[in-house]
From TrEMBL:
The chain crosses the membrane at residues 21-43. It comes from Candidatus Nitrosopelagicus brevis. PANTHER family: AURACYANIN-B, COPPER-RESISTANT CUPROPROTEIN COPI. The keyword Transmembrane applies. The lineage of its organism: Archaea, Nitrososphaerota. InterPro entries: BlueCu_1 (IPR000923), BlueCu_1_BS (IPR028871), Cu-binding_ET (IPR050845), Cu_oxidase_CS (IPR033138), Cupredoxin (IPR008972). It comes from the Archaea. Residues 153-194, 239-327 form the Blue (type 1) copper domain. This is Multicopper oxidase. The keyword Membrane applies. GO terms for molecular function: copper ion binding; electron transfer activity. PROSITE patterns: COPPER_BLUE, MULTICOPPER_OXIDASE1. Keywords: Copper, Electron transport, Membrane, Metal-binding, Transmembrane, Transmembrane helix, Transport.
Length: 327
């Protein structure tokens, strides 16, 4: 039998070289894993996935608490609006407070840019309802974050109630609606007419009064829920601060968690860059590490409702925010 000649070379390696290659690859994997888990606090301090963020709903032109809308000068004016969901006996006509044609139906709310509108809504009907503010002239989408009470998927049952708020950032006509599909078309819609910014409240001169506040940054075991002093829902969580304009405020924060945190008083809790009064402790780019603490002293500025938050992106959304009221 004739021998077949093979022209292409056949490459072989030795068991020793194979073992060496596997050891090198294993070393690379171990080193990479060490680096990754060594920076674990850094990874878990990143913002939550986009699906958990609510600020992009409604776009930049919808005012309120939209991401990217920027800080707005608060006027210190609060407008309280009590609204009841009501229905006709045949359920064909729906409205707020009174049926169309009756006095008080779907009252128009007038406000200035920077005013805070507080909605106290109650379901006085026999069906399910939900609430929100939108700038769209029809439909039930593009709700302004922070203005919602319940949702079409988890609506208010008869007799249930809720509270929300809306701070308009630009003039225009907005609409408060029932966000259950079809209910706006049946009459559950009212107007919010927003005019140019009113005269902003002025800061008072120094009063000589001093306040000291201390907060601990705390985290749940799975890091999904964050808070100041206690976790949201627990007694003492995110305590309200109430001071007078011109008072001297000293805040001390202690990072009692395992991740990175920073502090600031902001005009918009959804915008961690809207820090006011030079109230920062550390920063998102240079936060407090676990076990570290910091303090800041500043004067309370113009009257209004502000918020103290963790300024690391995403942490306020996960619960690290409280109310800071200047009177």
């Amino acid at each position: 039998m004739a021998q077949v000649e093979i022209n292409d070379p056949i490459y072989r390696t030795t068991p020793e070289r194979t073992t060496k290659m596997m050891v090198i690859m294993l070393g690379i994997c171990i080193a990479g894993g060490g680096i990754f888990f060594g920076m674990w606090d850094y990874w878990i301090s990143m913002p939550p996935p986009a699906g958990l963020l609510t600020g992009d709903v409604g776009g930049d032109d919808h005012g309120g608490s939209d991401k990217g809308s920027g800080a707005v000068t608060l006027t210190g004016v609060e407008i309280n609006s009590a609204l009841s969901f009501i229905e006709s006996s045949d359920f064909r006509v729906l409205a707020f407070n009174a049926l169309p044609g009756e006095e008080g139906a779907n009252p128009t709310i007038n406000a200035n840019v920077g005013d805070k509108i507080i909605f106290d809504v109650v379901n006085d009907g026999k069906s399910f309802h939900a609430f929100g503010v939108t700038k769209d002239t029809e439909g039930f989408s593009n709700l302004i974050p922070g203005s919602e009470v319940a949702s079409m998927n988890e609506p208010l049952k008869p007799g249930e109630s809720g509270v929300s708020e809306f701070i308009p950032t630009e003039p225009g006509t907005y609409y408060y609606i029932c966000t259950v599909p079809g209910h706006r078309m049946q009459g559950m819609v009212g107007e919010i007419v927003v005019t140019g910014a009113g005269a902003p409240a002025a800061a008072a001169p120094p009063t000589g009064v001093s306040h000291d506040f201390t907060f601990d940054f705390v985290e749940s075991d799975d890091f999904r829920t964050l808070g100041f002093d206690k976790l949201p829902g627990e007694d003492g969580a995110n305590p309200e601060i109430r001071v007078n304009s011109g008072d001297e405020i000293t805040v001390t924060t202690v990072n009692a968690g395992k991740s990175f945190h920073a502090f600031g008083v902001v005009s918009n809790p959804d915008d961690f860059t809207s820090v006011v009064f030079d109230s920062e402790i550390a920063a998102a780019t240079n936060p407090l590490k676990p076990g570290e603490s910091g303090s800041v002293t500043f004067l309370a500025g113009a009257p209004g409702t502000y918020y103290y938050i963790c300024t690391v992106p995403g942490h306020a959304l996960q619960g690290m925010q409280g109310t800071f009221i200047v009177e």
